[in-house]
Amino acid sequence: MYRRDHQCFSGGKETDGSPLSAIFHSWQRLLLFFVLTGILLLLCAAFGWQFPVFLLLVNLSAAFLFLCCILLGENLKAEQPALIKDSDYACALNRIKHEEELKETFSNFLHDEILQDLLSVKNLAGKSDRPEVRQLILKTLDQLNLRIREKMQDCHPVLLKNLTFKENLEQLILSIQSLFPQQTIQVTFLCSGTLLMPAPYDVLIYRLVRELLTNIYKHSGGTHAWIALSLEGTTAKLSVWDDGAQISVPEADGTVSFWHKGLFSMKEQIDSLGGTLTVSSRIPQGVRTEIQFDVKGEDSYQHFIRG
């Protein structure tokens, strides 16, 4: 717990124990040294001072820097508990907000998708002697079953262990296509059959593909979609694009200045991993989403999920 919060407080910068290293990077300290040395040499040249005077000035400067380090170190020690406490509070507040958003979303799902249909079935139960009513009850229960299963998969995707990661994503693509039978969008999936995505990044990629492909079916109006996934060293790269409608309000560089809820949530997650998510218009038509982040192990993913 302390390790994570301390990294938030220090900005994630590694230090070598010197107070100056908490403020300046190594190249900045080196630059400071050369600048100070240059100033002393210029002073000696301007006033005609000899080399012993230069050495004396160097010693005085070193003593001054040493004194500054002592004072700076004492200040950092005094302020560190307060900074860590503020970081703890901010992380806890963000966690509470995130949990409340999840609870609100699930509550709305229960009310809008489940409770209303259950009340309808209850009202129809008194007329169940009629064949058409029984048929309507069965249809409603089947729809309830489907929506509950979809919500379960949305809350916690289950990847089949007897399938490769690529095969799991192919099954996901087929399931999304089945949700939009009225649309005929051809999906091309570019991914190595031997790609191994470690947990829990596999679930993250699964969610990203589902969100982006669903967006294409809902909003693009195109006829073709492409998904490209690769793991180059420790860098995961996901590209999703289509030939449908372009972004309505692009910036000068082609990126968007607005995000709907799903895209904004994805961007927050990728940003928390230190990655990038960009959306741009394609020429002559379509939208392209590029996602890239480093695969560093389970701890970093748990950090952004809990935060």
UniProtKB/TrEMBL annotation:
Keyword Acetylation: no
Domain (Histidine kinase/HSP90-like ATPase) ranges: 204-295
Family matches, as InterPro entries: HATPase_C_sf, HATPase_dom, Sensor_HK_TwoCompSys
A Pfam family the protein falls into: HATPase_c
Segments crossing the lipid bilayer: 30-48, 54-73
GO BP field: phosphorelay signal transduction system
The species this protein was found in: Candidatus Limivivens merdigallinarum
UniProt entry keywords in alphabetical sequence: ATP-binding, Kinase, Membrane, Nucleotide-binding, Transferase, Transmembrane, Transmembrane helix, Two-component regulatory system
ATP-binding is among the record's keywords: yes
Coiled-coil intervals, chain numbering: none
CDD domains in UniProt: HATPase_UhpB-NarQ-NarX-like
Protein name, as recorded: ATP-binding protein
A molecular function GO annotation: kinase activity
